[in-house]
């Protein structure tokens, strides 16, 4: 989650794909501390369950230009956040920055996403991941302090409002560290090994920094459970997935739908639900639909008509047959996952209508699933639990290096620091690789390759600002052969020079504001 640096080089060995399988040449590897190149974003939808952002774009009020232009390309469960923003209800945004170098144009993407959410009404959190920088990168506290100050100045210069938001350092936030301890009780080494490739050589501090990041992600919900989004690059998705898992494990109750005394997984439940709705209890001897009746029906129906696989069918048949004459009745099931005795009793009292109480769960027959989820959350919070909602995330594309290939912090010409002298920024853009043709004549005839051009990315990600018409005009003129690379780079270089000069002037203006925020600018761990 933190760091989110498209310039970082590999520092943790072989990255792992989801589930702990070592990444092969054709796999998409997501390693929060390693290479951030993703060659095929479509595979992220297929392999990791990231959803396409375009599918919910119309539901987002006043979408940011990064959303409109597809730079923010994916999300995980962002709809609750979009709905809260649209209705003016509480929501939060959080992202963090690992202070291992100067802030650069890759970080600006995340700065912009935090600031936009804050402007839309979300409570905004920005943190300095200094514990991670020290544990995972070996940075000294003196170096961390220097870079942390620079990140914060750029964030404030770009428009973050510290009076309406929260800034903190991991190392100085005791509430965060206490939360990390609680979350750590629900995590184990085998998970870290599978997700991150940790082994016997991994330091305990590095592992602890992961738990701290999980606490960062949940931190906006300490006061109350609210929809929360974490803007990151796709390399940080392993952190988001683990945080969502831990947030659920911390909940007092798990809510599911059931039809009898046995449990069903999602595929099994879909099959039972469909055929429960198809069958008429009046067709059976005692006007009751029983487990054995559905088992007989499914067994007599060709697999091709059931729209499921053989393994799912076999499992459902076994469960139905073992339940025998037990009536099939839809119900919502509340599992006691880690509730106190008082909380479990309060839940029982809060459930209205018909219910059956068992040692470890309660079945409710007159409550809808969504209503049950909210009831479980309310009871948990009222009885001392966190009640975390699963954190959401949005994902932005990585920027191509100005010299081609991936951006690299070790190759100065490949990226632009927000601290670069404006003239240096100008020269870097002027020297950048383009998606142009071999000759001007060929460019006019065939058009340029804007989709493969680092310079066009600068327009789309940064230089065109909120002006979609300008960004589109640059694109259309390029691919139409009207725009040649020399003039295009000159215009981009001028705009970059102006941006850097203006940004650095604003950084100087917010120096005093940074001092007033109250965030610790010098670590107490310095010696």
TrEMBL record:
Name listed for the protein in its UniProt record: Tryptophan--tRNA ligase
Record function comment: Catalyzes the attachment of tryptophan to tRNA(Trp).
GO molecular function terms attached to this record: ATP binding; tryptophan-tRNA ligase activity
Organism per entry: Natrarchaeobaculum aegyptiacum
Biased composition (Basic and acidic residues): 438-448
GO CC entries: cytoplasm
Extent of motif 'KMSKS' region: 406-410
InterPro entries reported for this sequence: aa-tRNA-synth_Ic, Rossmann-like_a/b/a_fold, Trp-tRNA-ligase, Tryptophan-tRNA-ligase_arc
Family: Belongs to the class-I aminoacyl-tRNA synthetase family.
Main location: cytoplasm
The organism's taxonomic lineage, starting at the top: Archaea, Methanobacteriati, Methanobacteriota, Stenosarchaea group, Halobacteria
Keywords of the record: Aminoacyl-tRNA synthetase, ATP-binding, Coiled coil, Cytoplasm, Ligase, Nucleotide-binding, Protein biosynthesis
Statement: the UniProt record of this protein carries the keyword Membrane: no
Disordered as annotated region, ranges: 1-32, 428-448
Pfam family membership, one: tRNA-synt_1b
Source domain of life: Archaea
Residues forming coiled coils: 489-527
